[in-house]
Amino acid sequence: MRKFITSESVTEGHPDKVCDQISDAILDECLKQDPNARVAAECITTTGLVLVVGELTTEAYVPIEDVVRDTIKEIGYIDNDLGFDYENVAVLTSINSQSPDIAQGVDKASEYDQSHDDYDKIGAGDQGMVFGYADDETEVYLPMSVKLAQDLAKRLAKVRKEKILDYLRPDGKSLVTVEYDDDILVRIDSIVISTQHKDKIPMEKIREDIIEHVIKAVVPNELIDDKTKIFVNPTGKFVIGGPKGDSGLTGRKIIVDSYGGYSKAGGGAFSGKDPGTPGSLLCSDNIFSRGVRGLIVDTARKRGRQPVHGGRLRPAHRGAELQRTPRGMGAGLTAPGGGNARGTGEINKKETAA
């Protein structure tokens, strides 16, 4: 049976990703100085404005305005004609300390009173759901469409920052649709790239440059055929972008950050949260998550699920799940009442997104 699955990604200059990176930069600065910091930093942005809100309980001193401006500068919003730049943006903050009602669930989980096991001592400040997914189709244990969409977005940033395409601007998106035949990857059906650019650049030049310097540099040639559709800025010019074109919000790209629609999503944001908050460790593109995905794939093989042609893992029965992750992997997920629960991992559950 043939089916098509689509995944998207966004560049670092996308408004929502700007907010994610600001939230994470604040978190990083807190944890750098105080490993026990309690952080829930969220951000909203629009034309000429960044608003940082949330709760911080930490011994660290974090110059939030400087962190915000440095993050925006690193992304590439450095020209005031973009309607949003690191020097002229207004930065507002509304930060409170973590609620003691939340803190009590993190300081000591109720399970510790019965088990006296150190792994059970640290609880969670809230309930939540986190799903883990693994797939041996690529070396990062993610499905091909997810990996290609993410790699295309990264490549857009690279050719812009290295001035290979010096007319590009920070905002952009990618979308990849792949075709499977009986769970075997056979081809790429379509690729969509939308990229912000300077004014008065011919659309044909943008298309040629994106195909040559972005798509060809990322997408395996053997997956493209004469029926593969390639769309570059399909709606026309894309001069107004970033927070001037759309408002941004922390946590609004959790499918981009996880499994690209292949697996379920718990709903909580990944950015700006310390490890005592649901989902903070399990975004798709970090070393911890990659290690967990590798563990899931290896365990699946040991349980008799053999790879088929194209690198797919074919489960013994659909919807197979690994019910627990080993202690020491850090997958202490949250349960109601400040408790502690173990994670689950899904194996090749692609049909849920078909």
Write the layout of secondary structure elements.
Layout: E1 2-10, H1 15-33, E2 38-46, E3 49-57, H2 64-75, E4 90-96, H3 100-107, H4 112-115, H5 118-121, E5 132-134, H6 144-161, E6 168-181, E7 184-197, H7 203-218, E8 229-232, H8 242-245, E9 248-249, H9 254-257, H10 287-302, E10 321-322, E11 332-335, E12 339-342, E13 345-347
Parallel strand pairs: 3-4, 5-13, 7-8
Antiparallel strand pairs: 1-6, 2-3, 2-9, 6-7, 10-13, 11-12
Mean pLDDT: 81
Specify Rg, calculated over alpha carbons: 22 Å
> Count the helices. How many?
10
Helicity level: 25-40%
Placed side by side, the strands forming the largest sheet appear as 1-6-7-8
Instruction: Note poorly predicted spans.
Output: 306-354
What is the number of E strands?
Answer: 13
N to C succession of SSEs:
EHEEHEHHHEHEEHEHEHHEEEE
What is the chains' assembly state? single chain
Helix/strand/pairing category = alpha/beta
What spatial form do the alpha-carbon principal axes imply?
A: flat
Distance between the termini: 11 Å
Strand content: 15-25%
Biggest sheet, in brief? 4 strands, mixed
Describe the model:
There is one protein chain. This protein starts with a strand and ends in a 7-residue tail after the last strand. It has a four-stranded mixed beta sheet with strand order 1-6-7-8. Helix 7 (203-218) links the parallel strand 7 and strand 8 (229-232). It has 354 residues and is α/β, with parallel strands linked by helices. Mean pLDDT is 81; it is low at 306-354. It contains ten helices and 13 strands.
Task: Give a summary of the structure in a few sentences.
With about 350 residues, this protein is α/β, with parallel strands linked by helices. The protein has ten helices and 13 strands.
